[in-house]
Design brief:
Elements: E1 2-3, H1 15-21, H2 32-47, H3 50-66, H4 72-95, H5 102-110, H6 133-154, H7 158-180, H8 183-188, H9 197-217, H10 225-237, H11 240-247, H12 250-271, H13 277-314, E2 324-325
Parallel strand pairs: 1-2
Helix pairs in contact: 2-4, 2-12, 2-13, 3-4, 5-12, 6-7, 7-9, 9-10, 12-13
Protein backbone atom coordinates (compact mmCIF):
# COMPACT_ATOMS: atom_id res chain seq x y z
CA UNK A 1 0.00 0.00 0.00
CA UNK A 2 1.59 3.32 -1.03
CA UNK A 3 1.98 5.99 1.64
CA UNK A 4 1.08 9.68 1.43
CA UNK A 5 2.04 11.89 4.37
CA UNK A 6 -0.41 14.52 5.57
CA UNK A 7 0.68 16.92 8.31
CA UNK A 8 0.05 20.45 9.52
CA UNK A 9 2.35 23.42 8.79
CA UNK A 10 4.41 22.72 11.92
CA UNK A 11 5.18 19.07 11.17
CA UNK A 12 5.18 19.00 7.34
CA UNK A 13 8.66 20.62 7.03
CA UNK A 14 10.36 17.56 8.59
CA UNK A 15 8.70 15.13 6.17
CA UNK A 16 11.81 15.30 3.98
CA UNK A 17 13.95 14.14 6.90
CA UNK A 18 11.57 11.24 7.49
CA UNK A 19 11.55 10.29 3.80
CA UNK A 20 15.36 10.27 3.74
CA UNK A 21 15.15 7.50 6.37
CA UNK A 22 12.06 5.58 5.20
CA UNK A 23 8.34 6.01 4.70
CA UNK A 24 6.14 4.48 7.43
CA UNK A 25 5.07 0.87 7.02
CA UNK A 26 1.44 -0.14 6.59
CA UNK A 27 0.64 -0.50 10.30
CA UNK A 28 2.92 2.26 11.59
CA UNK A 29 2.11 5.82 12.58
CA UNK A 30 3.52 8.83 10.76
CA UNK A 31 6.05 10.08 13.35
CA UNK A 32 6.45 13.52 11.72
CA UNK A 33 4.36 15.35 14.32
CA UNK A 34 6.19 14.18 17.43
CA UNK A 35 9.52 14.19 15.60
CA UNK A 36 9.07 17.86 14.64
CA UNK A 37 8.81 18.92 18.30
CA UNK A 38 12.07 17.22 19.23
CA UNK A 39 13.78 18.14 15.95
CA UNK A 40 13.41 21.89 16.37
CA UNK A 41 14.15 21.64 20.09
CA UNK A 42 17.36 19.61 19.69
CA UNK A 43 18.64 21.60 16.72
CA UNK A 44 18.27 24.91 18.55
CA UNK A 45 19.87 23.49 21.67
CA UNK A 46 22.95 22.36 19.72
CA UNK A 47 23.41 25.63 17.79
CA UNK A 48 22.23 27.85 20.67
CA UNK A 49 23.33 31.30 19.47
CA UNK A 50 20.71 34.02 19.00
CA UNK A 51 22.78 35.78 16.33
CA UNK A 52 23.15 32.64 14.25
CA UNK A 53 19.47 31.86 14.68
CA UNK A 54 18.59 35.38 13.50
CA UNK A 55 20.72 34.87 10.36
CA UNK A 56 18.90 31.60 9.64
CA UNK A 57 15.46 33.12 10.17
CA UNK A 58 16.19 36.16 7.97
CA UNK A 59 17.86 34.10 5.24
CA UNK A 60 15.17 31.43 5.02
CA UNK A 61 12.34 33.94 5.51
CA UNK A 62 13.51 36.23 2.68
CA UNK A 63 13.97 33.34 0.24
CA UNK A 64 10.56 31.84 1.10
CA UNK A 65 8.89 35.23 0.68
CA UNK A 66 10.65 36.14 -2.57
CA UNK A 67 10.38 32.84 -4.43
CA UNK A 68 6.76 31.72 -4.21
CA UNK A 69 6.91 28.99 -6.87
CA UNK A 70 9.87 26.96 -5.67
CA UNK A 71 9.78 23.17 -5.61
CA UNK A 72 7.77 21.81 -2.68
CA UNK A 73 10.58 19.75 -1.18
CA UNK A 74 12.91 22.76 -1.11
CA UNK A 75 10.17 24.91 0.43
CA UNK A 76 9.70 22.37 3.22
CA UNK A 77 13.45 22.21 3.88
CA UNK A 78 13.78 26.00 4.10
CA UNK A 79 10.73 26.15 6.37
CA UNK A 80 12.31 23.51 8.59
CA UNK A 81 15.50 25.57 8.91
CA UNK A 82 13.36 28.66 9.58
CA UNK A 83 11.77 26.91 12.56
CA UNK A 84 15.18 25.61 13.64
CA UNK A 85 16.43 29.21 13.52
CA UNK A 86 13.59 30.35 15.80
CA UNK A 87 14.51 27.59 18.25
CA UNK A 88 18.17 28.65 18.03
CA UNK A 89 17.23 32.24 18.92
CA UNK A 90 15.26 30.95 21.91
CA UNK A 91 18.19 28.90 23.24
CA UNK A 92 20.64 31.70 22.48
CA UNK A 93 18.61 34.08 24.65
CA UNK A 94 18.48 31.50 27.44
CA UNK A 95 22.27 31.06 27.28
CA UNK A 96 23.14 34.73 26.68
CA UNK A 97 24.92 34.13 23.36
CA UNK A 98 24.70 36.60 20.44
CA UNK A 99 27.51 35.88 17.99
CA UNK A 100 29.28 34.52 21.06
CA UNK A 101 30.31 37.42 23.30
CA UNK A 102 30.54 39.88 20.38
CA UNK A 103 28.67 42.72 22.09
CA UNK A 104 30.84 42.52 25.22
CA UNK A 105 34.07 42.41 23.19
CA UNK A 106 33.05 45.29 20.88
CA UNK A 107 31.97 47.47 23.79
CA UNK A 108 35.18 46.83 25.74
CA UNK A 109 37.60 47.13 22.81
CA UNK A 110 36.20 50.05 20.83
CA UNK A 111 34.09 51.99 23.36
CA UNK A 112 35.97 51.25 26.58
CA UNK A 113 32.76 50.34 28.37
CA UNK A 114 31.38 47.18 29.92
CA UNK A 115 28.21 45.83 28.35
CA UNK A 116 27.25 42.28 29.25
CA UNK A 117 24.13 40.54 27.99
CA UNK A 118 23.14 38.34 30.91
CA UNK A 119 21.73 34.93 30.06
CA UNK A 120 18.06 34.46 30.76
CA UNK A 121 18.97 31.11 32.33
CA UNK A 122 22.72 30.36 32.57
CA UNK A 123 25.94 30.33 30.53
CA UNK A 124 26.86 26.76 29.44
CA UNK A 125 30.60 27.56 29.25
CA UNK A 126 30.59 28.58 32.93
CA UNK A 127 28.29 25.82 34.16
CA UNK A 128 28.39 22.97 31.62
CA UNK A 129 26.94 20.35 33.97
CA UNK A 130 23.71 22.34 34.27
CA UNK A 131 22.99 21.61 30.61
CA UNK A 132 20.44 18.83 31.07
CA UNK A 133 21.47 16.78 28.04
CA UNK A 134 20.79 13.38 29.60
CA UNK A 135 17.33 14.41 30.87
CA UNK A 136 16.41 15.50 27.34
CA UNK A 137 17.67 12.14 26.08
CA UNK A 138 15.56 10.19 28.56
CA UNK A 139 12.44 12.15 27.61
CA UNK A 140 13.18 11.60 23.90
CA UNK A 141 13.69 7.85 24.34
CA UNK A 142 10.60 7.47 26.51
CA UNK A 143 8.57 9.35 23.88
CA UNK A 144 9.74 6.75 21.35
CA UNK A 145 8.59 3.95 23.65
CA UNK A 146 5.27 5.78 24.04
CA UNK A 147 4.87 5.83 20.26
CA UNK A 148 5.48 2.07 20.21
CA UNK A 149 2.82 1.56 22.89
CA UNK A 150 0.36 3.62 20.82
CA UNK A 151 1.10 1.63 17.67
CA UNK A 152 0.60 -1.70 19.38
CA UNK A 153 -2.53 -0.56 21.22
CA UNK A 154 -3.99 0.78 17.98
CA UNK A 155 -3.59 -2.71 16.48
CA UNK A 156 -5.26 -4.26 19.53
CA UNK A 157 -1.99 -5.87 20.73
CA UNK A 158 -2.35 -4.82 24.35
CA UNK A 159 -0.26 -7.66 25.79
CA UNK A 160 2.56 -6.89 23.35
CA UNK A 161 2.35 -3.25 24.45
CA UNK A 162 2.83 -4.33 28.07
CA UNK A 163 5.62 -6.79 27.26
CA UNK A 164 7.56 -4.55 24.86
CA UNK A 165 6.96 -1.13 26.40
CA UNK A 166 5.68 -1.15 29.97
CA UNK A 167 8.35 -3.57 31.21
CA UNK A 168 11.05 -1.36 29.67
CA UNK A 169 9.53 1.70 31.30
CA UNK A 170 9.73 -0.13 34.64
CA UNK A 171 13.31 -1.32 34.11
CA UNK A 172 14.85 1.89 32.77
CA UNK A 173 12.69 4.30 34.75
CA UNK A 174 13.17 2.35 37.97
CA UNK A 175 16.93 2.21 37.49
CA UNK A 176 17.06 5.97 36.92
CA UNK A 177 15.02 6.63 40.07
CA UNK A 178 17.34 4.38 42.06
CA UNK A 179 20.42 6.21 40.76
CA UNK A 180 18.86 9.55 41.71
CA UNK A 181 18.61 8.34 45.30
CA UNK A 182 22.39 7.70 45.47
CA UNK A 183 24.59 10.53 46.74
CA UNK A 184 27.56 9.24 44.72
CA UNK A 185 25.58 9.54 41.48
CA UNK A 186 24.33 13.02 42.43
CA UNK A 187 27.92 14.16 43.04
CA UNK A 188 29.05 12.63 39.74
CA UNK A 189 26.52 14.56 37.63
CA UNK A 190 26.53 17.67 39.85
CA UNK A 191 22.94 17.36 41.06
CA UNK A 192 21.85 19.51 43.96
CA UNK A 193 19.40 16.92 45.29
CA UNK A 194 18.89 13.22 45.91
CA UNK A 195 15.65 11.32 46.17
CA UNK A 196 14.68 9.77 49.50
CA UNK A 197 15.93 6.24 50.13
CA UNK A 198 12.35 4.91 50.17
CA UNK A 199 11.78 6.26 46.66
CA UNK A 200 15.04 4.64 45.55
CA UNK A 201 13.88 1.32 46.99
CA UNK A 202 10.60 1.61 45.09
CA UNK A 203 12.61 2.36 41.95
CA UNK A 204 14.81 -0.72 42.27
CA UNK A 205 11.72 -2.89 42.90
CA UNK A 206 10.09 -1.51 39.75
CA UNK A 207 13.30 -2.17 37.82
CA UNK A 208 13.35 -5.74 39.12
CA UNK A 209 9.75 -6.32 38.02
CA UNK A 210 10.59 -4.94 34.60
CA UNK A 211 13.69 -7.15 34.31
CA UNK A 212 11.78 -10.31 35.23
CA UNK A 213 9.01 -9.39 32.82
CA UNK A 214 11.49 -8.88 29.98
CA UNK A 215 13.20 -12.23 30.63
CA UNK A 216 9.85 -14.04 30.68
CA UNK A 217 8.34 -12.39 27.59
CA UNK A 218 11.12 -11.43 25.16
CA UNK A 219 11.31 -14.95 23.76
CA UNK A 220 7.57 -15.60 23.69
CA UNK A 221 7.64 -16.38 19.96
CA UNK A 222 9.59 -19.62 20.61
CA UNK A 223 7.84 -22.83 21.63
CA UNK A 224 10.82 -24.27 23.47
CA UNK A 225 11.10 -23.20 27.11
CA UNK A 226 14.89 -23.22 26.88
CA UNK A 227 14.89 -20.97 23.83
CA UNK A 228 12.40 -18.63 25.49
CA UNK A 229 14.63 -18.29 28.52
CA UNK A 230 17.79 -17.68 26.47
CA UNK A 231 16.03 -15.14 24.26
CA UNK A 232 14.69 -13.50 27.40
CA UNK A 233 18.20 -13.13 28.80
CA UNK A 234 19.36 -11.72 25.48
CA UNK A 235 16.46 -9.28 25.52
CA UNK A 236 17.45 -8.14 29.00
CA UNK A 237 21.04 -7.71 27.81
CA UNK A 238 19.63 -5.31 25.22
CA UNK A 239 18.92 -2.97 28.09
CA UNK A 240 22.58 -1.96 28.00
CA UNK A 241 21.79 -0.14 24.76
CA UNK A 242 19.70 2.33 26.75
CA UNK A 243 22.82 3.42 28.59
CA UNK A 244 24.69 4.10 25.35
CA UNK A 245 21.60 5.80 23.90
CA UNK A 246 21.31 8.17 26.87
CA UNK A 247 25.05 8.90 26.86
CA UNK A 248 24.89 9.77 23.17
CA UNK A 249 22.85 12.86 24.07
CA UNK A 250 26.04 14.36 25.49
CA UNK A 251 26.47 15.67 21.92
CA UNK A 252 23.90 18.34 22.89
CA UNK A 253 26.40 19.65 25.44
CA UNK A 254 29.41 19.23 23.14
CA UNK A 255 27.97 21.05 20.12
CA UNK A 256 26.39 23.77 22.24
CA UNK A 257 29.73 24.50 23.92
CA UNK A 258 31.61 24.33 20.62
CA UNK A 259 29.43 26.98 18.99
CA UNK A 260 29.89 29.48 21.82
CA UNK A 261 33.60 28.83 22.39
CA UNK A 262 34.58 29.08 18.72
CA UNK A 263 32.52 32.27 18.32
CA UNK A 264 34.26 33.81 21.34
CA UNK A 265 37.69 32.83 19.98
CA UNK A 266 37.02 34.67 16.69
CA UNK A 267 35.81 37.72 18.61
CA UNK A 268 38.95 37.77 20.76
CA UNK A 269 41.22 37.28 17.73
CA UNK A 270 39.58 40.18 15.91
CA UNK A 271 39.93 42.46 18.93
CA UNK A 272 43.66 41.81 19.46
CA UNK A 273 44.95 44.78 17.34
CA UNK A 274 43.02 47.14 19.63
CA UNK A 275 41.06 50.36 19.11
CA UNK A 276 42.56 51.95 15.99
CA UNK A 277 41.56 52.23 12.31
CA UNK A 278 43.51 49.12 11.34
CA UNK A 279 42.09 47.29 14.35
CA UNK A 280 38.55 48.11 13.24
CA UNK A 281 39.22 46.72 9.76
CA UNK A 282 40.82 43.56 11.14
CA UNK A 283 37.97 43.05 13.59
CA UNK A 284 35.33 43.39 10.85
CA UNK A 285 37.25 40.95 8.64
CA UNK A 286 37.73 38.42 11.48
CA UNK A 287 34.09 38.81 12.56
CA UNK A 288 32.62 38.24 9.09
CA UNK A 289 34.94 35.42 8.03
CA UNK A 290 35.09 33.73 11.44
CA UNK A 291 31.37 33.73 12.14
CA UNK A 292 30.55 32.70 8.57
CA UNK A 293 32.77 29.63 9.00
CA UNK A 294 31.39 28.97 12.48
CA UNK A 295 27.74 29.18 11.48
CA UNK A 296 28.38 26.99 8.42
CA UNK A 297 30.19 24.28 10.38
CA UNK A 298 27.83 24.27 13.35
CA UNK A 299 24.60 24.43 11.34
CA UNK A 300 25.85 21.38 9.44
CA UNK A 301 26.85 19.71 12.72
CA UNK A 302 23.50 20.46 14.37
CA UNK A 303 21.65 19.14 11.30
CA UNK A 304 23.65 15.91 11.11
CA UNK A 305 23.50 15.14 14.83
CA UNK A 306 19.81 16.04 15.15
CA UNK A 307 19.09 13.59 12.33
CA UNK A 308 21.22 10.95 14.04
CA UNK A 309 19.35 11.29 17.34
CA UNK A 310 16.06 10.87 15.46
CA UNK A 311 17.14 7.98 13.22
CA UNK A 312 19.08 5.89 15.74
CA UNK A 313 17.88 6.63 19.27
CA UNK A 314 14.28 7.74 18.66
CA UNK A 315 13.25 5.61 15.66
CA UNK A 316 15.06 2.65 17.17
CA UNK A 317 12.34 2.37 19.80
CA UNK A 318 9.33 2.04 17.51
CA UNK A 319 9.87 2.76 13.81
CA UNK A 320 10.81 0.22 11.16
CA UNK A 321 9.67 1.94 7.96
CA UNK A 322 9.73 0.16 4.63
CA UNK A 323 6.74 1.98 3.16
CA UNK A 324 6.47 3.01 -0.49
CA UNK A 325 5.78 6.64 -1.30
CA UNK A 326 2.57 7.39 -3.17
CA UNK A 327 3.66 8.68 -6.57
CA UNK A 328 0.71 8.99 -8.98
Amino acid sequence: VPVKLKNNKFAAPVEGVLESYSMPGKHEIDPSGIMAVFYYFLFGMMLSDAGYGLVMVLGCGIILHKFKNMEEGLRKTLTMFLYCGISTIFWGILFGSFFGDAITVIAKTFFNTDIVIPPLWFTPVDEPMRLFSFLVGIIHLFAGLGAQFYQLAKQGKWLDAIYDVVFWYLLVGGAIIYLLSMQMFADMVALSFTLPASVGTAGIIAAGIGAVGIVLTSGRSSKSIGKRFLKGLYGLYGGSSYLSDILSYSRLLALGLATGVIASVFNQMGAMPGNNPLGVIIFIFAFVVGHTLNIGINVLGAYVHTNRLQFVEFFGKFFEGGGRKFAP
